[in-house]
């Protein structure tokens, strides 16, 4: 199994990222609320550095960047212009020594590709599972976005056949580019990773030793794919992934589901719904709060009028041998 070589525009984006990293570029992406606050500070209206351009998504004078970087941005289709200034349509973020392209701030487009603090926690949850040392022959990242979950798996288990699945073509484009950036182009590396357009697992047959997922879990009135989880409290997609995984885990296989759970009057409706699905004695499972309070600003929205908080949680499910 191998991915075809990248199209010219995607190769240009990969080269752009490689050039930035080779020059020492590093950037950790914060929450949208933090991003907005930092950009609103006096003096941050316009970019003055590469981090301002490709991390903070600030507009910049064309002369700020070397011509070769501007050329790669044009070739990659990510150079926007407005009111005489330029702007990058992508950000480049650092995760565990790797670099990932994803959508620029603000992520307002319907097909925006999200990357942020949830991504870092998701990667840590996967690393914790992989540290158990269980073999992985076949794995899938459901709703892969920019691909960090699947790529973390592929780096730790280069022998595994891995699928990165998403319904968003823009996400799959960046996932392929990020795989090329972060995985060796060899039969035991990038060649065993494939990005596939699929609604959950509909387009990917067979069973899996490892399924990972970091689905959207907010209630988004605009129903943007990267953000809207569905259901009254945003748990709809997370539960759909759990249902799909229970059908497709191989004996001894594991699901690592990182998501958000709205806690209402001290109760966790997502945990209750998940627990009801896990009464089958074929499965063992654990559930923990990785962070008890995330996206607190969302509590002002009508959908969360009765919620105490939104917690980042990890549900780990294993099918018995």
Descriptive account of the structure:
The chain has 321 residues and is of the alpha/beta class. The protein folds into 2 domains: 8-103, no CATH class; 117-319, 3-Layer(aba) Sandwich (Rossmann fold), CATH 3.40.50. It is 30% helix and 25% strand. The strands form 3 sheets. A 7-stranded mixed sheet has the order 7-6-5-8-9-11-10.
Summarize this structure briefly.
This protein has 321 residues and is of the alpha/beta class. 30% of the residues lie in helices and 25% in strands.
Summary keywords:
single chain, 321 residues, alpha/beta, Rossmann fold, 2 domains, seven-stranded mixed β-sheet, two-stranded antiparallel sheet, 25% strand, globular
Overall CATH architecture of the largest domain: 3-Layer(aba) Sandwich
End-to-end Cα distance: 27 Å
Query: Low-confidence parts, pLDDT < 50 over ≥5 residues?
Result: none
Strand order of the largest sheet: 7-6-5-8-9-11-10
> What is the number of helices?
9
Shape: globular
Text of the CATH class of the largest domain: Alpha Beta
Please give the largest β-sheet.
7 strands, mixed
Here the CATH topology of the largest domain equals Rossmann fold
Radius of gyration using CA atoms only:
20 Å
CATH superfamily of the largest domain: Vaccinia Virus protein VP39
User: Strand share of the residues?
Assistant: 15-25%
How many domains, in number, for the residues? Answer: 2
